[in-house]
Request: fold
Amino acid sequence: MDIKASFSYMRAAMTGLQSLSYRRRFLISSSPNVQSTWRSLTTYADFIEQWSSETIQQAANELIEKGILLCKRTPDDKAAYYLKPEYLCFNLEPSPYGEGDDGYATLRKQLLFNAEVHSSDLTDEQRRDIENRFKKPDGDVHFVAATPTLEMGIDIGDLESVVMIGAPPTPANYAQRAGRAGRGKNHEALIVTFCSNLNVHDTYAFHNPRTVINGKVAPPAFNPANPEILKQHVNAFVLRHDVTRRKDLQQVSHHAPHQKYLDHIPQMIRLFGDWFDYRGYADEFAALPGEILRETDGQRISPAHHCYSQGIFPDYGFRRDQVIAVDVANRDELDDENTLDWKDYALTNPSQHKRLSVGHVCR
Reply:
């Protein structure tokens, strides 16, 4: 039996199986011989009698050998056959938006809302691109899930609504985040704050909203010449692109971390000032990558999370109850990294691969 014939048999078999569940006529193939076969069959028993179970099993086996059909065993040890998605085609009417990638791009622009993440994990160029696409009236970014990187000093245009995940730590933070919306012509905005009953600060803010919404804004207090605080910023500045994955940090640890640090000194002087003894801190910094790797070895925690939670990077009490969503297509890499169990965070839609935390801003 050739593959074309066996495929026709199997399509007829699939058609016949439908009759068990629905007791009505279905047609999934436009092949004339399959259509004529179906017209002569009204029940599953007739279908088996027409083709014989041996013929159907032979067709299924040949299709499995060719990689077109898959077979899985059910919990009660029955065989379940199904087509590989690559061989499943639909005879649909042409899309009014066009075909292929161009058609999807048109559909996405006209019908779908698109979201991006704005955080310190991105490069400056990536953040600027998201900001520009977000604030353009005809831009293709409609929602931005943001950490405090969007709290101050960045123009993101007119917003209609702001959603905060968790009550901000102070009234000043609330004013900064909520104040992003309502600057348009209508001066109208929707501000929503989600509070968790498992968080003491959230619970207090929920029962005493005026203390957050209309509370006292204290003048900021910061000693710019505190070397311990600056060390955290220096660590984060030099290692910011190397702590997402262990293998990146291993590269730094094994290949001249001392020199990597020294190469950043001119930029750090421009950013943080020249009062700090950058060269005197070089040896202490060079030992950091190895220490981080040792302290996280065997743990399902990313180097970045370790750096923030242990005070290696600056962390001003920002929330850590973020939602983690991973692309299951990267499960092998995640297993190699051993930073988290991807099965705990896998999404139904594997195209979504974002980490969200602290606040959500939407247009």
Summary: The two ends are 60 Å apart (CA to CA). The first strand starts at residue 69 and ends at 73.
